[in-house]
Amino acid sequence: MTEPHERPGDGPADRPAGLADGTRCVRAGLPAPVPGQPFLPGPVFAAPYHLDPWAGPAAAPDGYGRPDNPTRRLLEAAIGELEGGDCRVFASGQAAITGLLLTVLRPGDTVVLPSDGYYSVRAFAADTLEGLGVRVVLAPTAGPCPALDGVRLVLLETPANPGLDVADIADVAARAHAAGALVAVDNTTATPLGQRPLDLGADVVVASGTKALTGHSDLLLGYLATRSAELLDAATNWRNVTGSVPGAFDAWLAHRSLATLDLRLGRQTANAEALTGLLAGRTDVTGLRWPGLPGDPAHAVASAQMRRIPGLLAFDLGDAERVARFLDAARLVGAATSFGGLHTTADRRAQWGDDTSPGFVRLSCGVEDPVDLVADVANALDASR
Ligand SMILES: *Cc1c(COP(=O)(O)O)cnc(C)c1O
């Protein structure tokens, strides 16, 4: 289930496989047409599969459900096509990220992690990696890039969740490779339609497929994608022995959802743009961040590096009570964590122990109509003042 990978320079940068995004999403990972068969075959539910009594597991690709599942392989082909690498899916984003860290890092190694990225990764580094004798260096996504001599792995998260700073992937990859370090990029927020880190020089992509990639708020998924056979083998082996695989139904739902990724992201970005128009003009909203805004500190790097800006905003409403009044008054903004779903949601990150200020809100634009959404947010801001 591998495809020939395009390299930078093979074609127009905005059409990595020669086809535009919507087309690639609709077709990604689908088997060749067979009369009488569905476009996307249904999920295959199996723990053991029948074996050939004489040849045993060598006779067929599927022997046991932990390493082998055809529904999962189709999803991996789809995500691999979009990222431009070979993919392995995991039970969650955390399973993919911690799997990569534990596969690559050994006692005495140094890892550089974002100081402003997904908090569970920092918690894992403090609890587990440091306990194993790995030195953890935290660096801000917006830079400056720390000295990388003696570093084994740099993990970037760009745009970073929740602060939405952006790192220059090609620049960090060049510095890291000069120092003999590997570069991993958490591509959760951007999705492979927003940027293809492997084209920008990263060695491996990790991500949560729970968010915008699948976008229906109904499953957990993670993945890793790479062009390195060595990293792919190590990750595959890690997943086989630790068992962090997604179930067949979740893999099938995820693949089904991928077909609309271009449509969903398009509307989410349009909604983010419409909402920033409202929020930027209000004196009762501070700290507005969206990399698509011309004045945003991340705008220059984001517009050079990214093919589209995700529908995720951050701003501050001052205190926890105003955020609660805002969420109570809004009819189209659900109070929920996570992001990238069909429904617009907002999350006061400090309630989860993130080191953000008490009034800091991360708002994830859904696919509602922009006019309705802007009117609802304006009303809720007025009502909560
Ligand atoms: C949500 C998230 C994760 C973790 O993914 P899960 O699927 O929840 O395990 C990792 N990185 C980023 C940037 C995320 O937003």
UniProtKB/TrEMBL annotation:
Record family assignment: Belongs to the trans-sulfuration enzymes family.
Q: Name one GO biological process term.
A: transsulfuration
Q: Which organism is it from?
A: Micromonospora citrea
Keywords for this protein: Lyase, Pyridoxal phosphate
Give the residue ranges for region: Disordered.
Answer: 1-23
One Gene Ontology cellular component annotation held by this UniProt entry:
cytoplasm
Would you tell me the protein name for this molecule?
Answer: Cystathionine gamma-lyase
PANTHER family on file: CYSTATHIONINE GAMMA-LYASE-RELATED, TRANS-SULFURATION ENZYME FAMILY MEMBER
Reported cofactor(s): pyridoxal 5'-phosphate
Instruction: Quote the NCBIfam families the UniProt record gives.
Output: PRK07582.1 (NF005758)
Q: Where is the composition biased (Basic and acidic residues)?
A: 1-13
GO MF terms listed in the record are: cystathionine gamma-lyase activity; pyridoxal phosphate binding
Where does the record place the modification N6-(pyridoxal phosphate)lysine? Answer: 211
